[in-house]
Design the sequence.
């Protein structure tokens, strides 16, 4: 049997496997008339579109975290979502703002979902078909601080993640941080947020050395002569007291405490659940968060709008 006959057979069995509405018969007829069309969409790593609503385009289903949504026209949404297998993508969710849409509550920020979508090689935006909720963050909605922390995680991820580049470690980081927020609501978000900021900067390649002055190269953590460490907006990394004096005229240098530098080393070595064991309040690690946020902002070349709300919370 040639490729065309094979394709026809597969489409016929596919059509038989689903309940095709009256309008779908036309689609089925069209599929039978185009051999090249039938050969598309059967490649490895792709599933066939069983609804036959977009018969020309292969469909994918990816485990994803929804990052942000933006209104489009009166009923649609543009969705930025982070897939486990393809990295960050953007797509259009048609009629998502209508009641009883195919997306339900799955497009809330940081919902963990299985997203079904269609990709075209010629278009930057994918077409979202539907999503199946794996884990919602709805339980955190009533906690203002946790809710703002979610906004922060989503904003940082959306800004830092490159388009269409898989980032398994970043994906696992988000899952771990979300789990911590859900499971330990009484602990507050501070440890989770600090841990996330550290690893988000590090996995993106924007975490400088924390034990070296980037001004003169001297070791800050020399056990025989420990140095105090400072940072200031617009300067990468940390600097020693001497170098801080040299740029002092530019003003605004803050200290990164020895305690916070130890904390950062802990975060580098341990999973979040172990770091989170100690009691955390907002002041703990605030200087480290400020330092990390400045590094991230310098990289994305804009201010993170959720930071002020979070730290004011
Ligand atoms: Zn120095």
Sequence:
């Amino acid at each position: 049997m040639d490729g065309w006959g094979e394709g026809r057979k597969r489409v016929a069995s596919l059509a038989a496997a689903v309940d095709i509405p009256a309008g779908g018969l036309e689609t089925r007829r069209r599929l039978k008339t185009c051999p090249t069309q039938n050969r598309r969409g059967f490649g490895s790593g792709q599933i066939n579109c069983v609804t036959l609503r977009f018969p020309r385009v292969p469909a994918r289903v990816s485990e994803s975290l929804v990052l942000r949504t933006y209104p489009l026209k009166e009923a649609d949404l543009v969705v930025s979502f982070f897939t486990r297998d393809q990295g960050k993508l953007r797509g259009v969710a048609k009629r998502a703002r209508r009641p009883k849409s195919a997306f339900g509550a799955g497009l809330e920020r940081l919902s963990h979902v299985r997203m079904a979508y269609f990709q075209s090689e010629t278009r930057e935006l994918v077409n979202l078909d539907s999503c199946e909720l794996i884990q919602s963050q709805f339980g955190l909605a009533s906690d203002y601080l946790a809710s703002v922390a979610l906004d922060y995680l989503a904003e940082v991820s959306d800004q830092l993640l490159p388009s269409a580049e898989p980032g398994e470690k970043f994906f696992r980081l988000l899952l771990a941080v979300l789990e911590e927020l859900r499971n330990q609501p009484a602990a507050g978000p501070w440890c989770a947020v600090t841990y996330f900021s550290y690893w988000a900067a590090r996995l993106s390649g924007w975490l400088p050395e924390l034990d070296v002055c980037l001004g003169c190269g001297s070791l800050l953590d020399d056990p025989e002569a420990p140095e105090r460490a400072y940072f200031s907006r617009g300067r990468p990394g940390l600097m020693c007291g001497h170098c801080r004096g040299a740029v002092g005229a530019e003003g605004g240098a803050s200290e990164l405490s020895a305690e916070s530098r130890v904390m950062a080393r802990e975060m580098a070595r341990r999973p979040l659940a172990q770091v989170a064991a100690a009691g955390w309040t907002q002041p703990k690690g605030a200087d480290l968060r400020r330092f990390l946020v400045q590094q991230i902002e310098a990289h994305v070349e804009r201010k993170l709008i959720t930071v002020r709300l979070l730290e004011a919370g």
